Amino acid sequence: MGEVQELQLHVRVRDIGKANPADQQVNITPQSTVPNLRNHKRWLRISIYTLSVILGQSAAALLGRLYYNKGGNSKWMAAFVQTAGFPILLPLFFISIHKNPHTNGSSVTNQSSPSIIASIYVILGLFLAANCMLYSVGLQYLPVSTFSLVCATQLAFNAFFSYFLNSQKFTPFIVNSIVLLTISSVLLVLQTNSENQTESGKGKYILGFLCTVAGSVGYALLLSLTQFSFQKFIKREDFRAILHMTVYQSLLATCAILVGLFASGEWKLLSKEMKDFELGKLSYVMTLAWTIVGWQVHAIGSTCLIVEVSSLFCNVISTFGLPIVPIFAAIIFHENVNGVKIISMLLAIWGFVSYNYQHYLGSSKLKPESENVNQVSQAS
């Protein structure tokens, strides 16, 4: 009986070896194209999120500078417009229901309790409110070009936090990118003859610079904590989870900023500020409205990049978008773009290229490995 079973097994193995090669090719080709299609769709999503971060950040920073230049003076209002756009995202919940109805049951059961997730939203929301306030003070006392380039220091802080919170791996190209992008902003400290020192005074310039650096530290920590929360507590990476994080975080930050706005008494001055705005009342409202839209586009793009790739990659995109702002600032606000700022922009671009080259190397190494895995699975 054992000899008969051994003979049958030998015949089956021999028949598999004699299988038609054309049939094997038909089975392999469709399966091998599926990972490529998924990879293309993923990079398409990353490209869309990247454009959202760069365009939203650039437009919001320029409109924020316009608000201050034409008569705006409320720091709380400048912070309010950075978070108040979350109602724009509410219709996306209905769209995501059809495109991504729900995750599987296992991912839902692995989530932390609703009380823990709610606590995360509260903590990150309050953290975001404080960070927005720091940025609003920095933008008030610094030229928009200097403000944007000083914000590039957030990349170095984010690399530090990502190493400890997100287990970020560093390669020579990533380290080179971080160093170059950080130096591009540190050079501005050596620029003693700042155009803003003559306008608002050296003391306010230093205050704006320190607040911007503190805001950069806070923003870097916020990105790392967001990634950490998705990995350890939320444990979902679908679009609805991203919307929940963005909307609830912005809602709580907006409530905290409104409390500060009314407690400080600045709300009493808003009607006079609107009347005295150099471009008129309608332009005042439209400036704030489009600033709200810009920051919210940036917020949803940033959260998507954190979930899709990492917080460090999101920060690299934000830092790469910063040199765009001084170019438009020179055209719109006639700010001076001297040699130091030009060098800063070139270093920022160089650092961005270095980081993306590392991603290219990583993709090149992973591609043959995935092909080998597919061939083994197909052979089995």
Report on the architecture of this protein.
With 380 residues, the protein is mainly alpha-helical. Helices cover 81% and strands 0% of the residues. It has 17 helices and no strands. The chain has helices at residues 2-17, 21-69, 75-80, 91-99, 105-109, 114-141, 144-150, 154-165, 172-186, 197-200, 202-234, 239-264, 270-276, 281-308, 311-321, 324-332, 339-379. Helix 2 (21-69) packs antiparallel against helix 14, helix 6 (114-141) packs antiparallel against helix 11 (202-234) and helix 11 runs antiparallel to helix 15 (311-321). The radius of gyration is 26 Å and the shape is globular. The two termini are 28 Å apart. 39% of the residues are buried.
The number of helical runs is: 17
- SSE run: HHHHHHHHHHHHHHHHH
Beta-strand content bin: under 5%
Helical content stands at over 70%
On the 0 to 100 scale, the average pLDDT is: 77
Content-based structural category: mainly alpha
The tally of strands reads: 0
N-C termini distance = 28 Å
Shape: globular
Radius of gyration: 26 Å
What about the largest sheet? none
Low-confidence stretches: 4-9, 11-19, 21-29, 98-107, 192-198
